[in-house]
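Figure 6 in text form: structure in, sequence out.
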């Protein structure tokens, strides 16, 4: 499941993966929060934690993750992946050039640094005028 993290700066969305992550978790938690930020004209600065409680992604969840890349690049700010899962970190690092926004990987022990980094990302008022 995906849980919403609370107590973060206003311009940061935070989520924690717990147990098995399914497509329905994206549909009920992650997607609505991202859509709300986009509809409010905010950049999506995101912290996503894959800590010790995380077990696995279903194939459907992986597909939902890929679908996030279909959002316009202009909506993305900073994406902080917080994990000690080496293989996942390596995969995301290797594919980060394909991802929208600025992506950085943090150790679980550095979650506060990840939140601060994401919070310092671009905001809606940083966008160039059209």
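Output sequence:
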């Amino acid at each position: 499941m995906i849980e919403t993290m609370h107590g973060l700066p206003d311009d940061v969305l935070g989520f924690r993966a717990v147990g098995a992550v399914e497509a329905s978790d994206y549909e009920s938690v992650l997607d609505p929060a991202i859509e709300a930020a986009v509809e409010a004209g905010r950049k999506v600065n995101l912290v996503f934690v894959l800590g010790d409680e995380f077990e696995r992604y279903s194939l459907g969840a992986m597909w939902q993750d890929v679908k996030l890349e279909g959002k316009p690049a202009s909506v993305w700010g900073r994406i902080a992946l917080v994990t000690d899962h080496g293989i996942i970190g390596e995969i995301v690092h290797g594919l980060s050039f394909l991802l929208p926004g600025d992506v950085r990987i943090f150790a679980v022990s550095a979650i506060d640094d990840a939140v601060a980094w994401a919070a310092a990302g671009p905001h809606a008022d940083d966008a160039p005028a059209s």
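Caption detail: DSSP finds four helices and seven strands in the chain.
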